[in-house]
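Because discrete structure vocabularies remain unfamiliar, we reproduce here a specimen of the format, pairing a chain with its fold in token form:
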Amino acid sequence: MKIGYKLFAEAYPPKEIVRQAREAERAGFDFVEISDHYHPWLYSHGHSGFVWSMLAAAAAATETIGLATGVTCPFIRYHPAIIAQAAATTAILSDERFTLGVGSGERLNEHVVGAGWPPVSVRHEMLRESLEIIRLLWSGGYHSYEGRHLTLEDARVFDLPGRPPPIIVAAGGERAARIAAEHGDGLFATEPDDTLIRTYEQAGGTGGRYCEVPLAWAEDEAAAATSAHRLMRFGLTGWKVQAELPNPINFEAATASITEDDVRGTVACGPDPDRHAEAVRTFADAGFDHLALMNSGPDVDGFFDFYATELSGRLQLVGSR
């Protein structure tokens, strides 16, 4: 089992995100992953730097830790040709430590270019076509492609890594899990849902199974819960809401009735390492083997120290079960 750290780019400025990537490496994490957003979820988050710039800087600032997007929508706001080039360059800059996480996106980020927001069935078709285009461009040489939704005209990515980055496909349901099996190298999820893994494996998927584990570390449990409520309450709205609301103000309204007690029900809060290890165990028992810890506590560096001295050893025992 690999343990990663979620770089919360919506809550911190770009230079701080790069610093956290370096500190995560020092703390002993196996990888970091970072979302590819144009807007933050909530106004109170206050940030949303450009992921590809931060990844390039993180690649230069680190030596061994894996880097991943968690996740990029490779169409609408982008074209998959651009993502193919960006991911290839990031893989080169990181000495092939990069993993491309992709998904069907959220209106929050994609509507900004004025191209509309298709229904999820169409987005899945666009995701399939995007992955076909990316694979095509990574094979070398010039290529054209004409799909139902996307077109590529006489394009070539000139700088390619020695091996293409793994592609991990996000899934919130069975259709996307099958896309992950058919077109990806792994599965990405945000909930410990073993039915996604079963669907993925039944469709022929054999790669890594990634998931995010919500935690909030602080020396005081109440302080951890307050911070988790401020940063993570958007996660309680559910994926169907998260994919459809267009702006942070909508998420502020949608989360107005969510309380700290509600957050405590889904986020492990406080200083107890056994409590956090048990939260991780829930995801491991569901079958996920690449777990990104999403800390929403108020003290980032305190969490890194906590992980290095108290939590990592316990998680090794979880992974060995």
Summary: The two ends are 10 Å apart (CA to CA). The chain has one domain: 2-319. Residues 2-319 form a domain with the TIM Barrel fold (CATH 3.20.20.30).
